[in-house]
Amino acid sequence: MHAWLCENPVGVEALTWKELPTPEPKAGEVLIEIKAASLNFPDLLIVQNKYQMKPPLPFVPGSEYAGVVRAVGEGVQHLKVGQNVACLSGTGGFGTHTLAPAALCMPLPDGFGHVDAAAFIMIYATSYHALIDRAALKAGETVLILGAAGGVGTAAIQIAKAAGARVIAAASTDEKCALCRELGADETINYSVHTPQGTLRDEIKRLTGGNGPDVIYDPVGGDFAEPAFRSIAWRGRYLVVGFASGPIPNLPLNLPLLKGASLVGVFWGNFAKNEPKANAQMMQTLAGMYLQGQIKPVIDQTLPMSELSKAYAIMGSRAVKGKLVLVN
Length: 328
Prior knowledge:
328 residues, alpha/beta, Quinone Oxidoreductase, Chain A, domain 1, Rossmann fold, seven-stranded mixed β-sheet, six-stranded parallel β-sheet, 15 strands, NADPH:quinone oxidoreductase, ER, GroES-like_sf, ADH-like_C
């Protein structure tokens, strides 16, 4: 097998493509021949030693991937050789093969391709857990989605529309706003025009008739959080999904008090760990939604696995719409 090896986490430039012994799965593991792997923001942080999970060195980055089971370890009952699966294991995806815990593998139904599957678990599990489980989104409610043209943002648009919500999508360019409308967004906000320090709050107010959004989905953080929260509706739910802009915001706690609003943390990984049965049921629901055409990952582009450094550069430029996928 071959893989991109991180022996010193000082950045993307330190990754090297190396031939390694193909491993044998231990108890509870499967060997997967990787067909496609997607690039996520944590994949950048982890090779810079900036991610909360710090795997022992050396390691192969690549948190999310899809492929074919080539061997199964002792005790694995629900997967078999030749089966198509997707997996989000945190590392191992940027190569030709990897070992994965069988419990983390999602069996793929017929008609679920590897490229879509490699870009599926993280964004749809996060967005469904956020909007449906944590926010209890109802038909007819209004959702404001920040960072709406990114991976989790595009997934959130589709899930919110499937739930019957009205969607306001906020993104940084007219091109990204156009993509959001193609995905079903009812209104868009270009926040390079309506900036957090400028008219963002006024525009949210205008688009909601002064009532504010019932749910705010925020994977961005930074300067966007306070003006967005100040716009929220009475009994609104503010979903803290992540901090893609960098800084973690400091919100005055009088704001939830005055609005009767909830500040809701969204950590899908811990949900999956603490409530595995509920998570498995959710993933089944999402697979069904995919097969019914209700949701489908937005693939910005696919690149050969050999062009990982180019993929990282594209992601770092913040020009990506949806997901980047590497293929073998």
